[in-house]
Amino acid sequence: MASSSFLTGERAVVALFIARIVFSLPQSLLFESLSLSLLSLLALSVEISVDASASVPLSHFFKTRPGASSGIFLGAVTLPGVMVSKLIQMSRAVSLNQSGSEELKNLQLLYWVTSASCYTVLAYLWFIFYHQSDSKNCATSQCSLSCIALYFGVCCVSFAVESHSGWYTAANLLWLFSHGYAAVKLIQKILHTFPACASIGETLLVTVGLVIYFGDMLACTAAKSHGYFAVSKVVTVPYGIQRSEVSVIIQGLIIGLLVFPMLFKYVLQILERVSLASFRDTVDNHMRRSFVFYISLACVLIIAVPSWMQLVQDFHVHPFLWVLDFVLSEPLKRLSLCIYWLVVIYVSVIRFYNISKSSKIERILLRKYYHLMAVSMFVPALILQPKFLDLAFGAALAVFLMLEIIRIWRIWPLGQLVHQFMNAFTDHRDTDLLVVSHFSLLLGCALPIWLSSGFNDRPLAPFAGILSLGIGDTMASVVGYKYGVLRWSKTGKKTIEGTAAGITSVLAACSILLPLLATTRYVQNWFSLLFAVTISGLLEAYTAQLDNAFIPLVFYSLLCL
């Protein structure tokens, strides 16, 4: 019985994913290979300890999403796996003289930041469970402790070998584990602010992603500001590499909107103290709060965010005017694409919203129509206007964030309307407190495209999200729901027929796309492609996590190898 609980389908698929990456690493990335292996073993042992703990259940510390496993193993290795796959790809670029060594060093530092953040959160989880558990001398606890010590040793040796300066090693370790400390505090904050909205693994994925994004912004700001702190000279040099205007605009918008709710909360507290009146109870106060909200949002988006953009990038005009010039630089193609998107969105949303209110169609099938809508919108743009699609994804994510903030705070006049509309498309993974499905679908399609900017010798990699979610996940759900008989497990709903349909449909789509995308020098390794598609399909079948978040990143990582 213990072995059956240990050998779950999700863990087996994740182990195959990590093994494929580790065995693809060149000798020059030996320390990254060792650290990823140790991190995976640590994550697996922590997950086993957490899931098997009867005396101290997970709910004793955190209130996670009902019906989902902890997902620690998958959540802890996904982003480090992505970074290692990018390192392998960048190593090929350096060997072909198509990229400089500075970009490789930048990616290595980003990998270590990502890995150390996951490592610190895992060490924190192990620590709190270890001190509350009755079985402190069990094999998994000893394994976890050994992995924690070995990982830290590998990390220290890696930076010591790169430079014989003790100051360089200490500064980098401080930079790495400051991210880890921030990740621990942030995951605590998210799980307590949004209880029962996500599993530990899902929260870990989001937490580490946010910490990397914020840390990258701080390092870039320090590098561009010619920082006066010595640590900036040691750590932020790789962050000084030239960035595109589009990436700076997206980063500024997203971080500004993520920070805005905290700023708005402080503004309300200050106004309440000054005016000695509450903004919470009466209708008049609700209107005043909404007015303050829109004024504060305008100040952040029009003044604060563009100021940061101009600090880190040499915009000759206001960044939003630059966006307008960028769109109008190819007006026929880009404006036509915008009109096409608006028509598709309007027709689809109105059609599906009416169906959701009056039809008995299963909501899971209704939601898969949006996956097909994503394919029809994004595939033509990715082939014809990839740079414009990057910007469009950032704008769409910013709009989603603003609408979700308005919905959560019930800001007049849109708050209640947005809430009612969103409820028509939610599923068991969404709550009144936080609706995540639309974010996960958008980011699942966008992240592989954003990650593929720069050198990319794998033409299918940018399509990882669109293929796995828009085609594979949709076909698996439709075929499994209508024709599925053989289930992967007695308690689960996923069927073998659905998984087979998803894998087959993605392979068929790849065979159509490859002649359109690949250069004459590129020859697709069909065994590698089959492995990548199969692993992503099996992950969709076995995982109880938010598959829109994990599957595109896993599929992308395997396509980059």
Automatic annotation (TrEMBL):
GO molecular function term, any single one? kinase activity
Write out the coiled-coil annotation as residue ranges: none
User: Which key words tag this protein in UniProt?
Assistant: Endoplasmic reticulum, Kinase, Membrane, Transferase, Transmembrane, Transmembrane helix
Q: Assign the protein's first listed, main location to one coarse class.
A: endoplasmic reticulum
- Answer whether the UniProt record assigns the keyword Amino-acid biosynthesis to this protein: no
Question: How is it placed in the membrane, per its record?
Answer: Multi-pass membrane protein
Q: What is its EC number?
A: 2.7.1.108
InterPro entries referenced in this protein's UniProt entry, alphabetically = Polypren_kinase
Localization of this protein: Endoplasmic reticulum membrane
* Keyword Methyltransferase included in the entry's annotation: no
Q: What are the TM regions of this chain, as residue ranges? A: 12-30, 70-89, 109-131, 143-161, 196-215, 248-271, 291-312, 332-353, 365-385, 391-412, 433-451, 463-484, 496-517
**Name of the top EC class for this enzyme:** transferase
Q: So what family is this one in?
A: Belongs to the polyprenol kinase family.
- The protein's name: dolichol kinase
Classification from the root reads: Eukaryota, Viridiplantae, Streptophyta, Embryophyta, Tracheophyta
